[in-house]
Amino acid sequence: MKILVTDDSRVMRQIVIRTLRQAGYDDHEIIQAEDGWEALQMVGAEKPDLVLSDWNMPEMTGIECLEALRAAGSQVPFGFVTSEGSPEMREKAANAGALFLIAKPFTEENFRDALDGVLS
Q: What CATH code is assigned to 2-115?
């Protein structure tokens, strides 16, 4: 399986990838995007099985990327890994088609709880 990790911070992408590996998802291919626009292009080209995205990024935000994917007919599983964890943000994410929102700071357990049903 292929996971697309999208965040404008290279360090945060590495932290997400390390946490995925610690949570037991070390046999998945992981690809990276620096913003929502790049992620949108990569979903078409790379066909990931899951997109993990930050919310706030330049060029195109995570929520804009998700909305664009859904408008284009893509049903790729999509979840947020972001510092925005308010009930309003969770509701907006769910209404746009996100399967989950993992709030920073996160643990490997947060990843297992969110991803076990998606990557099984």
A: 3.40.50.2300
How many whole angstroms from its chain centre is CA 35? Answer: 11
Q: How far apart are CA 77 and CA 50, in angstroms?
A: 5
Query: By C-alpha distance, which of 80, 71, 81 is closest to 99?
Result: 80
Q: Are 4 and 52 in contact (CB under 8 A)?
A: yes
pTM above 0.85, yes or no: yes
SS (H, E, C) 49-85: CEEEECCCCCCCCHHHHHHHHHHCCCCCCEEEEECCC
Token output for 83: 């510092």
CA distance 101 to 114: 8
Q: pLDDT of 51-77, one tens digit each?
A: 999 999 999 999 999 999 999 999 999
Contact 73, 38 (CB under 8 A): no
Q: How far apart are the first and last CA of the chain?
A: 10
